[in-house]
């Protein structure tokens, strides 16, 4: 949904209603996660997807009805009876979809949400997607302005706010269940995770483009002003001319590198790389990688040990960075490294899907009534919104 907020705001500002169909539940093998959204614009334009193609036409038709008539609808698509009529999931799973009309009346502060998300502020949008009809579509917002709106009951609202803070801290969208068959979709818009690439090469440019596509806020850092230019790295959100270890140390000290960050040394130069990796491995980043040959990596580990980096820290270093895909070009190398980053984030081994077991798609929903396992990393930041 984040990538379509600008289009949604444009229609909203023009006073033109839009329909939003959002996945609110999945079972079995489902192609899109909870929170995946299809927007149907005033002219029938489709942005986004809820199924990767299986039921898009049926959802589009329902969305156009809701956009015109107003009342929200909860739908379910599976591989049983629906598949026999041509409307179902060929993968064998089931998805629940909530379809609602979005306009100035149903979402009066959409402009505030888009402004805050664009500025990188954490925002959560809570929507009642199951329960009594008079509650369906009711909405609450959490953001830098505080808490706005109500789901219809003070105790329910308090529980929903706690859920929203947990979802923001865990950086994930989910559906939370409450007594009375109530369900709330908590759409989390945390600040984008950071990907900081150290070096100014064609491989860095290719990885910056992929990282941006994956939703990272990409920074390229290199000490050489002739190489670290905006023209060479158009996909990066920022290009910094500084010594890599000095820049990273300042970012860590300023709490601008957190547990979701990705840090990759791509300088191929020990005088930049070694002090950088010492700082990176002492910090909180989710992924620390370094490119190069196996021989270069062995020498890198020897130098880091000599500098006092212990084995537990070295175990965090992905090197040579990337999955073994046989990559050689900058674009292929970018895919290889990005694939490893995704595998680390999801806790997967990164092997061929055909040889694996279990679900293909990682679950994005916490069990009913159970908070995410990770604790808020900046709890006070969200507790202040009250």
TrEMBL record:
Which InterPro entries does the entry mention?
MoCofactor_Util/Proc, XdhC_CoxI, XdhC_Rossmann_dom
Q: Which organism is it from?
A: Micromonospora humi
Residue ranges occupied by any XdhC Rossmann domain in the UniProt entry: 195-341
Known PANTHER family for this protein? Answer: ALDEHYDE OXIDOREDUCTASE MOLYBDENUM COFACTOR ASSEMBLY PROTEIN, MOLYBDENUM COFACTOR INSERTION CHAPERONE PAOD
The annotated regions of Basic and acidic residues compositional bias extend over 377-386
Indicate what this protein is called per its UniProt record.
Xanthine dehydrogenase accessory factor
Domain of life from the UniProt record: Bacteria
Residue ranges constituting the XdhC- CoxI domain according to the UniProt record: 11-78, 117-177
Q: Where is this region: Disordered?
A: 363-386
> Which spans does this entry mark as compositional bias, Low complexity?
363-373
**A Pfam family hit:** XdhC_CoxI
């Amino acid at each position: 949904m984040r990538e379509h907020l600008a289009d949604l705001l444009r229609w909203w500002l023009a006073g033109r209603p839009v329909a939003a169909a959002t996945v609110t539940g999945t079972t079995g093998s489902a192609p899109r996660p909870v929170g995946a959204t299809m927007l149907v614009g005033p002219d029938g334009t489709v942005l986004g997807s809820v199924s990767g193609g299986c039921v898009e036409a049926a959802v589009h038709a329902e969305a156009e009805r809701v956009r015109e008539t107003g009342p929200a609808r909860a739908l379910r698509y599976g591989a049983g009876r629906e598949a026999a009529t041509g409307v179902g999931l060929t993968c064998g799973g089931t998805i629940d979809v909530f379809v609602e009309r979005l306009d100035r009346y149903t979402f009066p502060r959409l402009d505030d949400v888009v402004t805050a998300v664009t500025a990188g502020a954490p925002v959560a949008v809570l929507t009642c997607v199951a329960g009594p009809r008079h509650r369906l579509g009711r909405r609450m917002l959490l953001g830098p302005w505080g808490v706005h709106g109500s789901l219809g009951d003070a105790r329910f609202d308090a529980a929903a706010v706690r859920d929203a803070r947990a979802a923001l801290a865990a950086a994930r969208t989910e559906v939370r269940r409450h007594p009375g068959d109530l369900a709330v979709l908590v759409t989390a818009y945390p600040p984008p995770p950071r990907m900081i690439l150290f070096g100014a090469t064609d491989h860095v440019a290719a990885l910056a483009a992929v990282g941006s596509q994956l939703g990272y806020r990409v920074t390229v850092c290199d000490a050489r002003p002739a190489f670290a230019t905006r023209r060479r790295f158009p996909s990066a959100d920022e290009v910094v001319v500084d010594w890599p270890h000095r820049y990273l140390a300042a970012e860590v000290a300023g709490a601008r590198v957190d547990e979701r960050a990705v840090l990759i040394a791509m300088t191929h130069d020990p005088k930049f790389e070694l002090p950088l990796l010492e700082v990176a491995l002492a910090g909180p980043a989710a992924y620390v990688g370094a490119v190069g040959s196996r021989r270069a990596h062995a020498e890198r580990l020897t130098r880091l040990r000599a500098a006092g980096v212990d084995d537990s820290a070295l175990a965090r270093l992905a090197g040579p960075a990337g999955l073994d895909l046989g990559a050689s070009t900058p674009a292929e190398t970018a895919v290889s490294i990005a694939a490893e980053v995704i595998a680390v984030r999801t806790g997967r081994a990164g092997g061929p899907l055909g040889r694996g077991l279990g679900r293909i798609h990682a679950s994005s929903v916490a069990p009913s009534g159970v908070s995410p396992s990770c604790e808020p990393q900046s709890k006070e930041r969200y507790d202040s919104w009250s």
